[in-house]
């Protein structure tokens, strides 16, 4: 099973403020939907709270140390290993990790792919995507979107991790 991270970040890896996204980009949200439909999506409790519901057509895994009330359409897991096991045993081919900051930090060493939108943003943030350039990535797709009306300029890339340079721990997952 591959592990993919989906993130929209600012120029200094900003991803959130006050438990919400920092921008609204309809084309990026449409892409997010297309990528995640039919897959297991893993997120943290705060990210789930910001979304407010299980998204249709996806299996929602919420990683929480605090536990949560039963929510229809949501599977609450207490560990990374349990999330991986549930997805793998269900036949998932590509686990989609969608945030927030702590979940991205946890998943990054194991990620095979990074769907990354980089947004022209200059403002406050309190949640950041972890430093990802410490790993070897190869860009397999990229596209620039200019600013349009209220929508800021942004770049979309698909990056894959280069396995031959990885350590033994990461190679076991490939």
Keywords:
5 helices, alpha/beta, eight-stranded mixed β-sheet, 174 residues, two-stranded antiparallel ribbon
Task: Break the fold down into its secondary structure elements and pairings.
Layout: E1 2-9, E2 14-16, H1 26-36, E3 40-44, H2 45-51, E4 59-63, E5 74-77, H3 80-89, E6 94-99, H4 101-107, E7 113-119, E8 127-128, E9 137-145, E10 154-161, H5 168-173
- 3D shape: globular
Radius of gyration using CA atoms only = 16 Å
Number of alpha- plus pi-helical segments? 5
What's the order of the H and E elements? EEHEHEEHEHEEEEH
Q: How much strand?
A: 25-35%
Mean pLDDT: 92
Order of adjacent strands in the largest pleated sheet: 5-4-3-6-1-7-10-9
The counted number of beta strands is: 10
Unreliable segments of 5+ consecutive residues: none
| Main sheet makeup | 8 strands, mixed
Structural class: alpha/beta
Name the helicity range: 10-25%
End-to-end gap: 8 Å
């Amino acid at each position: 099973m591959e592990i993919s991270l989906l993130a929209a970040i600012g120029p200094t890896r900003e991803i959130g403020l006050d438990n919400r996204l920092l921008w609204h980009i309809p084309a990026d949200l449409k892409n997010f939907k297309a990528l995640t439909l039919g897959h297991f999506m893993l997120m943290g409790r705060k990210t789930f709270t910001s979304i407010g519901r299980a998204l249709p057509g996806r299996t929602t895994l919420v990683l929480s140390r605090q536990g949560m009330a039963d929510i229809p359409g949501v599977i609450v897991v207490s560990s990374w290993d349990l999330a991986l096991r549930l997805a793998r045993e269900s036949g998932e081919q590509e686990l989609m990790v969608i945030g927030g900051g702590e979940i991205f930090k946890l998943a990054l060493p194991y990620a095979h792919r990074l769907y990354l939108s980089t947004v022209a943003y200059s403002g406050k943030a309190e949640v950041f995507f972890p430093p990802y350039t410490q790993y070897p990535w190869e860009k397999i797709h990229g596209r620039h979107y200019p600013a349009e009306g209220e929508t800021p300029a942004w770049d979309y890339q698909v990056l894959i991790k280069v396995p031959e340079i990885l350590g033994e721990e990461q190679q076991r997952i490939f």
